[in-house]
Specification:
- The chain has 12 helices and 12 strands.
- The protein has helices at residues 29-38, 60-74, 87-100, 109-119, 131-136, 138-146, 160-165, 174-181, 204-211, 221-234, 253-264, 278-285; strands at residues 3-4, 7-8, 18-23, 44-48, 79-84, 105-106, 124-129, 151-156, 192-195, 216-218, 246-249, 270-272.
- With 288 residues, it is an alpha/beta fold.
- It has 2 domains: 17-107 and 222-285, Rossmann fold (3-Layer(aba) Sandwich), CATH 3.40.50; 110-220, Rossmann fold (3-Layer(aba) Sandwich), CATH 3.40.50.1860.
Amino acid sequence: MMQNGDDIVVDPSLNNSVIGIIDSGVGGLTVAKEVMRQLPRETIYYFGDTLRCPYGPRSPEEVRQYTFEMIHFLEQFPLKALLIACNTATAVALEQVQSVLSIPVLGVIKPGARAAIKATREGKIGVIGTQGTIRSQAYKIALEELHPSISVHSLACPTLVPLVENGNRSSPEAYRVVAEALRPFQNKQMDTLILGCTHYPLLADLIHQVMGAHVRIISSAEETASELSTILHHSGLLAQKKKFHRFFATGSAELFAKIASDWLGQKIYAEKVELSSYTLYRKKFFAG
């Protein structure tokens, strides 16, 4: 079974299976947290590729390779849906992933664009993200599809992901790093700012301080979780009983667990894993 656009065929017996969430690192925890809030009976298996984070400076081919390697790992478990909780991976790999998996696959860009359109008062929207996401113009395209006359300003902020991944978001220098990254936006006219990287909501308070109270800060997490909830409901896949969440990381399991526990407000244990080789990735998804 494959999915094409909104035509998704699923097996109702999967309702007690798990939701896979993949990200370049810890940023997707912002999406996981919202899924836990909106769908408390669901079980999440989260994979953060912290060893190779950030994805933003990498080529589209590298990002696609790493995305499919994470998926290949998670496919050993009974998945009923997959969230690509990484804007860079969503921009370059979402359609390809949807074409080869038989379960619902969601990205974070279109939900973020919809949330921003709902929030803007004057139609002036800013987008911050990794180099890869901004270079793809995925948010600009998604926003203009919804509202052709929208004004969009985009800015790559490559220094912000390392700030989060290194566990330094509460450090004394964090405000300075955020302020310097957002300096080009200080004189731009906008009333809404999309956090076009799932790492950035962990810096939302600092971003709000820098941008000012008049700018609405938008994360795609709430809209993405809401879309997932709708799909699971209409497909008869809502879980009846939660099992145990699991968290996997390619880098330090201890650092991942510390950041995850702090953000999710509960004790988290992480499992360190090594991903499959590129040869296995190509054999599985590009045979023939």
